[in-house]
Structures are given as structure tokens and as C-alpha cells.
Amino acid sequence: MTKFEYYKMTLYESEIIKNERRLKTLLKTNIMLSLDNKRLNTENIRIKEQLEVLQLKNHGFVGRDRKIRTIGILCDNDQYENQGVLN
């Protein structure tokens, strides 16, 4: 093997090692971002549920004990029908 061939082989090996390190780093980053995404999705669902409760409370559908008894259904004319219990 000539010096040039040895040099090329060493260069390729170092590139392979660098790429392997980059790949490991990207995989770790991907895992961390995936976990953050799951956490944020869970938090987003919780916030949406709180928002729904606050909207229902604003429309008078939540009692003093802050439990939802029945939920009214909006009609096309934005009026509540008699399907909800107003407090």
C-alpha cells in the first residue's frame, strides 16, 4: 500500500467516525425533541380543557362547586337551546 492509499484510507476512516458521532448526536437530539413534543402536547391538551371549562363557566354552565353538570349546544343562531342547565 502506498502512502497516498494509506492517507486516503485514514481520511475515509476519520470521515466515517465524524459522521457516526454526528449521527449519534442527531439521534440524541431527536429523542430529546420527541420527549419535549410529547410533554408539550400533554400540556396543550390540559390547557385546552381548562379553556373549555372557563368558556363554559363564562356562559353560565358551571355551578358553584365548579363541576360541569350539563353542556348546552350552540345552534346556528348562536343561541343556547334548553339542553343545558343555567346557574
TrEMBL record:
This is Uncharacterized protein. It comes from the Bacteria. The lineage of its organism: Bacteria, Bacillati, Bacillota, Clostridia, Eubacteriales. It comes from Clostridium fungisolvens.
